[in-house]
Amino acid sequence: LVTWKRNCRSCCLLSYRRDYNETSKQNCSERTTWKYSPASDPALRISPVNLGDEGNYTCEIVNSEGNFLFFSSLTVIVPPMVTLTHNKRRVAVCQASAGKPPADISWIPASNHSSEEEFHHPNGTVTRVSYFGWVNSSFPSLTCLVTHPATNQTLVMDLRYTSHRLLYILIGAAASVGAVTAVTLCLIFRCR
Question: Which spans are transmembrane here (predicted)?
Fold first, then answer.
């Protein structure tokens, strides 16, 4: 006899009795089955796993040798959704949304001026947001590193095109064209 059960009331109970070649399921979803045939390998399979499946599970095996209990703890890891954006105040925003456990965020170049906040969601996931201001930066790019047990991601932002320097160059170029045009018109009208 092999029995899998989750340690809570009204939770799934999955069993197999070899002498009758009988399987039984109580309070189990379709996602909870035997990994292979319970006669050859009584491993439990939960697919797809979700946050509600987290918990402690017990496997009990009874045979002519005696009773054997095995305990297993299931922890669900959820990879975060990662984005890198910037706002008008020249602050880069690196966000690792709805991860479990929370992701770690770091920056290259490293800065003591970055800040971070965390939002806890009812389902047990966490969103971390890190802010990096580059107002006085001379670096051409900024890299956000997101570290998580399920995934590591590197996102790069090119600061040359997201900074206001480009705007200042365009304004300067427009002013230069305007000045040259004004001088040219002045010379043309004075020469007449």
Answer: 166-189
